[in-house]
Structures are given as structure tokens and as C-alpha cells.
Design a protein that fits this description.
The protein has 262 residues and is of the alpha+beta class. Helix content is 64%, strand content 10%. The chain folds into 2 domains: 5-71; 94-261, Glutaredoxin (3-Layer(aba) Sandwich), CATH 3.40.30. The protein is built from 12 helices and 5 strands. The model is unreliable at 1-27 (pLDDT under 50).
Length: 262
Amino acid sequence: MRFTPFLALALALGGAGVAGGWWAMHGSNAEAEEAAAADGKLEGQLAEAGIDARQRGAIEALVHSYILEHPEILPEAMEKLQARETEARLAPLRGAVETPFPGAVMGNPQGKITLVEFTDFACTYCRSSVADVEALVKANPDLKVVVRELPIIAPESEPAARMGLAAAAQGKYAAFHKAMFSGERPSSTSIAAAASAAGLDSAAAGTFTQTPGVHQELERNLGLARQLGISGTPAWSVGGKLLTGAIGREALQQAVDAARKG
């Protein structure tokens, strides 16, 4: 069930007081102070609107009763709140998130729409998303896909990610990415096979994997993931919004379309 117009109004009028009381009992001091400040601001707005304490109490009672009768609205409300908080965290980081490691790009390098994928070569869900990304690239000539290596699943994830960045440096990232996900799970053998299939200069790539720039990129990606609350792969960023999981081609296309309109 979605919010009714009445409930939306009621929450706008009464929600801050309810939140303030909850945080006073359960939240941290900073959170309680923030809630109290919001409650104080709301009091002023209510006074300006001519709503007195008795009327506010009646509204809060109705809100309380409605929530008890329709608890199914709470997950929807929390989902919207989490999405709003995620967008707020992403906003100041968006430039860094969308700036690729040189060469770690698929699709149109000059595309006007940027889709960022946090990925791990050991991730089964990332593997299942490869075809979705390929379809998106084919259907959207203006799409640039920035890939951020996030080696968090297995010990072999990091050497695979390092070789991916070496492939990017040689202008063969897309070929390595596809070969890696088409083969066996990351291992010294499968990484070497993917590098060969992508046509990498193996000696140069091996040297490049140990350079400071590669280490810094992986640390940067881990840091971005922490700041954004990303704990698994794949995770996606497009149009200032963050999506997580193997959400499928249709959902990704909808996000790309929304970014294009926005």
C-alpha cells in the first residue's frame, strides 16, 4: 500500500514529533538533538499555519492509528528514506565515482550518460550481468560504462582486478572483462588465459599490475564503496542514483532512461 494524501499530510505535520520522541529514548545524543531541532522548526511552521497543540495531538493520534492498521507502509517508507540518504552520500562523490581509471571503460567513451559498475571477477551476479551490460551498450549509443574494480569476494579477486587494470592501460579492458567472465573463476590459470584471449602483452601487464597506480585505484574503489555503503557486487551508479545487485536489463535501462531525462 502507498501513502494516501491524508497520511502524507499527517506525517508532514506530526512526524517530527514522533521521531523526536523515539530518538530521545533510543538514539544517540547527536541524533536526538537533530530530531529535537526538527521538532522545534515544525512547531514554528505549525504555529504559522494556525495549527495549535490540540490539533497537532489529534493528527499524531491519527498517524499512530493508521500505521498500526497499515504496517506494510513502513518498509516502503524506509526504502524511500534509504534511497534519499544514499543519494545524499553519492552527490559529493559523483565526480570521483564517474571518473574512470584510464581505459576501464566500455561502450561509448564520450557518451553523455554514464553508468558506473562496481564489480568483482569472482562475483556470480556480476557474471550474470555481463549480458545485460552488453545489451545496454548496444541499445544506447550515448552510454559510457565506467567499471570500478572492487575485489572483495575472494583472495583471487585482487590479482584478477589488477590484471583488468593492466588490460585497461593497454586499451583492451573490454576484451579482458568479457574473457574473464566467460572463463573459469579467478585463478592464476584463468587470469592468464583471459589475458591471452584479450591479446595483452603479458610481460608488460605483469609489471603494470604491481605499480603504485594500480594499488591506489583499488584502494580508491574500496574507499568509495565504504562511503557509499556498498557491501557487495554488482553495484551501479547512474544519474546520481545508486542501485545494488543483479537487477536485470530492464531495471538498468529504466535507470539509464531516467538519467537521460534528468
